[in-house]
Give the backbone structure.
Amino acid sequence: MPRTIIEKLWDSHVVFARAGAPTLLHIDLHLVHEVTSPQAFQGLRERGLKVRRPDLTIATADHSIPTSDRSLPILDEIAAKQLAQLEANCAEFGIRCLGIHSDQQGIVHVIGPELGLTQPGMTVVCGDSHTATHGAFGALAFGIGTSEVENVLASQCLLQRPSRTFQVRVDGTLKPGVTAKDIILALIARIGVGGGTSSIFEFTGSAIRALSMEERMTVCNMSIEGGARAGLIAPDDATFQYLHGRPHAPKGAAWDAALASWKRLPTDEGAVYDRTVSIDADSLEPMITYGTNPGMGLAIGAALPDPAQLSDPLQRDSVTKALKYMGLEGGKPLLGHPIDVVFIGSCTNSRISDLRVAAGLLKGRKVSTKVRVMVVPGSQEVKRQAIAEGLPEIFRAAGCEWREPGCSMCIAMNGDQLAPGQYSVSTSNRNFEGRQGKGGRTFLASPLTAAASAITGVVTDVRTVL
Amino acid sequence: MKPFTDFESRIVPLPLNNIDTDQIIPARFLKTTSKLGLDAQLFCDWRYDALGRPNPDFILNQPRVRGAQVLLAGDNFGCGSSREHAPWALTQFGFRAVISTSFADIFRQNSLKNSLLPIAIPADAHAELLAAVAANPDATVAIDLARQTLTLPGGRKVEFPVDEFSKHCLLEGVDELGYILQQEPAIAAFEAQHPATINALA
């Protein structure tokens, strides 16, 4: 019977299955960070358990880490304690930790692929909902809670219930100014933040095939914002080329063997999905969110929804509450709305290609004097590459801040945050109330839209400044 | 985990769709290395104003809901991050169940591991319950996990889904790890047949 890649990945990782219980899946790669792991390590300690597979586990510090000068002490004592705890836990349990002073430190979803740890056919977990990023390689990658982090540390296994298969088919060609970020924002605007609940997305179609690996990561990254448990893209030559030669990628005969098995992963002809949604890439426009969840998005030139036009009372209340929080009026356009901050970074859009795109637009220009622009590379490796290409000089000359790698203002745990009432155009993944700082207001968009808005100081259609 | 027992409780209505984990507990409180002390931060940015004073309009600050153990929320409750701090904060505040029309997957799984029962009911029953609470804030629901029924204030019994395995864990007060570790022979056999393709220590 023909199978989807989702079913193939599932079938090849079943350790134990019996009726009436979730299936026990083996995990090939477990990524750990400082925020969701301390209580899991403490659980192991209390039960007298060890980490079963330190060779399949790797940690880094990203969420609460400052993005200012790393040679200085961390001023936030609670964050400093959490970061020290990660290093201590990793030392105690024999896990490699790419901590605050490692030259391989970075956002967990940036470094896994970068080091070649993330490979096609794998199961990947992390105590972080954006783990779906790794699905870009044809891996089955789940975000998990801290209890599950503890379970995986102890057993290298995860209990999982079957998911529905959900094909997101994107055919056609993206127009200039329209990016991978706009594909995923358009999907979420269409199906809603709960649209993918209990499902795993497989992104297919010619527009997906045309994306680079980094762009594919942007798409898969926000699967969770569509409610899905995971999102993935079948591997192809772009995947193999990206991986070849990376530090942890197979070498020599092992590469040839791996390649042969990876080529068997794509969905079989005739396989059936539980649901399919089709998106026409040619008709996509740059997208932006206006509200307080990532499903509240629209084409950048469109008018905001008018709550009075919504019939469902809870939906009307949600939009009304969102517009009130955002200080916006229904029915009006978002274009031209003044902003205070632009954030270019996060596990969604902090890779070298994202920085190149932003720098390309900012080169020889100045950002608005009214706007603080933060550029936060995803990892030390991204930072090194950017320096080699002269990108920090371009950003600084334009008036942007060039910072150290981390999650930064995506989650605002480390002091990088909006002041109450401030507006940002952000390349991150969440626009929830207070996400970028208590009282802060977030418009999610692509790096191109963010850079364009940085120049003008207002929400801007990048196509007008290309 | 304590075994989950049947109970009857008044209800805290919070009828908004897509309540995300950043509202349940804002990220700035995730710098803790403990599971404890999170009840004070539950719904922090809705509960307190900029000066840290309780916001009298927010439902959790209203004396009439004191002691209620059931939260009644809108669709897709718990969307957003994987932070288990969300169910930790809810249970430490005193909640034992959340009723909605649907839950985000990771939140649902995290809740089941912490004796917090996510009860998904059909839209008509949800609307009936919201109306009943609006009419009488002291209205109660009864929760019977073994029979998977929620009894609405008017007496209507509504069935809700819970997978057999989670139900067993909740009723017995046991966690998953014991079950997983019992499968050691199967795990060892799988690993023997599937040599690792990476070595993160190398």
